[in-house]
Amino acid sequence: MTEIEFIEPFQLSFKKLFDAFERKEIGFISIKTENSKIWLPVKYDEGDQIEDIDFLDLFPEVMLVLYSWGIPALNFIAEVVAYIKKKRGDLKNLKNIDHSICQKCGGMCCKNTGCYFSIRDFDEISFDSLYSLLSKGYTSISPISNVLTGLEDSLLLKIRNINDPIIITQELPPSQCILLGPNGCTLKDKERPYGGSALIPMDNSTCIIGYTLREAVEEWAPYQELLIKLARTFVTKDVQFKGID
Asked: Taking the complete model, does pTM exceed 0.70, yes or no?
């Protein structure tokens, strides 16, 4: 990628971004700032399709581009890039849990949302086992639009956010994970959902997504009828969180 040509903001979907990358119409560059790492789509020319650049080299042009896209779009782009990087094998040698880094940033990821469960987190996936989990009050069932994954609309299981209902029926603003305590996650490392344990903490208060929504939807596809049944059961219940035990 010899010259950088930024792409004007457009209505995003996983399929649109991923397919454009596969056709080598676009690439992605990461803008590293003092407190974050942000990914932007650019017109692909040559070389690696995913590159890091120095923020100061393109200032103030980058500032205008970032403002044009907006935070929700930038978070979505980061999700797609994480999926591509994992598929390419770029993340396999990176460390997943590093408490020293998390202590420095204070859990910025956890202050935006709770993490997603994988099917690998459960010895048994049944109505009774998941009913018991949801009854503890720290887990939600959340809808995921096909726009975000390129797959069918789906339901996923995640750690509940503060003030969120057990069954999420509409788009809600980001809020803190209900299990985030003053010293970090109140779950032990081995007890965390895969979406949390797969996060790759980096310096400058950034994390690389180690378990993308696309992967989660692929994994939970065989259990959609079960999650729908549970959602219908809990949608009118007011379940209070009383602790993880």
From this structure: yes
